[in-house]
Amino acid sequence: MKNLLLQNISKHVSLTSEEEDIIFNAFEKASFKAKTIVIKPGDEAHFTYFVLKGILRSYTIDDNGTIHILSFATPGWWVADMYSYLTGKPAVLYVDVMEDCDVLILQRCDAERLFTEVPKLERFFRILTENNLIANQQRILDKMALTAEERYEKFLQKYPDIINCLPQKYIASFIGVTPEFFSKMKSNLLRKK
Amino acid sequence: MKNLLLQNISKHVSLTSEEEDIIFNAFEKASFKAKTIVIKPGDEAHFTYFVLKGILRSYTIDDNGTIHILSFATPGWWVADMYSYLTGKPAVLYVDVMEDCDVLILQRCDAERLFTEVPKLERFFRILTENNLIANQQRILDKMALTAEERYEKFLQKYPDIINCLPQKYIASFIGVTPEFFSKMKSNLLRKK
DNA sequence: ATTGGCTGTTAATCTATATTAAGAAATAAA
DNA sequence: TTTATTTCTTAATATAGATTAACAGCCAAT
């Protein structure tokens, strides 16, 4: 029986069952309680998580103490401090747990070993990273070209499922406005319709 | 003698001279005059450029007609409509020529053929995309957490060379402010010091 | 039941940045 | 050189969104 990880990988490359074993064995399993900070700036976070259950988020805290959310990770998604994971330098982000979670952990050094052993996995990560890059480019342009309202509507379309299990101030942080303004904006939207 | 492209690739993977030939032959060469629009939204832009000479930029135009610059590409850099290149769908960006340029063109289908033929090239593009992703993530956070002034100072540090050969309104567009505000901001910075 | 801590709302005020406009300076074209 | 076009600056005004503050609702812990 295929687990979520292999199911996920097989969306982009097809693996033999030996390859599946090799890959799966490179991951370690872990569980964390809600509110656990699993990565913080300065950590040597040379690994990435694949989420099996629960929700995590990655974010920074600026000089005023304001949180800016970079990403949410629900089951089937990856989350890491990409900077630390890819460069081997200390982390720049926080990653914490919003709902009790189970994750699979892949160390960078194991990933690199696997890339040579199973080139199809390197292909998978290339495609994953490519898709991630496109999404991030679009987000940059959206932040420059769209109003908060328009960004919110895009968010609704893109993540309709995640909305109800998420305090709305987190959505505000993700789209880049304060919770107060977000609240006002939402009631404006309701009044309009 | 190695050209700029092979030099660039060899920063991340080492190629035999046969591999170098295979790769180099997959590219087509082209030259464009300044102001040429080489990609526009709707185009089937299933290729990427490697810049040998000159400067290009990628951008969108919003409903008000305002330009938002996503990237500049100088010699040694890549530029494409990543969305069209990677998904095979119509382009969403403009790419145009800021200074007469020579580029090498790689079609997506040739890239995919090469990835199988020369796995090291797939590795190179994986790494390239990874680095690009990190930079884009940081840019998202910078736009949310930093003031325009701070973003400008980061830009100065990151691209000190490109600044003098670039109309400053393009820098304004890249960091996400109007040229008028950018001008004011710059004179404020001077007064401070 | 009561306390305390999150979360969401509303409203007043404030600020960074946008918009509009008009002239100056620089570049390119003729 | 003169003209035209693009770029830069300055200043007045406008606005999207931030800040501050006060309160209400909700849920978990005591």
From TrEMBL, chains A, B:
Residues 14-123 form the Cyclic nucleotide-binding domain. It comes from the Bacteria. InterPro entries: cNMP-bd_dom, cNMP-bd_dom_sf, RmlC-like_jellyroll. GO terms for molecular function: kinase activity. The lineage of its organism: Bacteria, Pseudomonadati, Bacteroidota, Flavobacteriia, Flavobacteriales. SMART domains: cNMP (SM00100). It holds the Pfam family cNMP_binding. This is cAMP-binding domain of CRP or a regulatory subunit of cAMP-dependent protein kinases. Keywords: Kinase, Transferase. It comes from Paenimyroides ummariense. CDD domains: CAP_ED (cd00038).
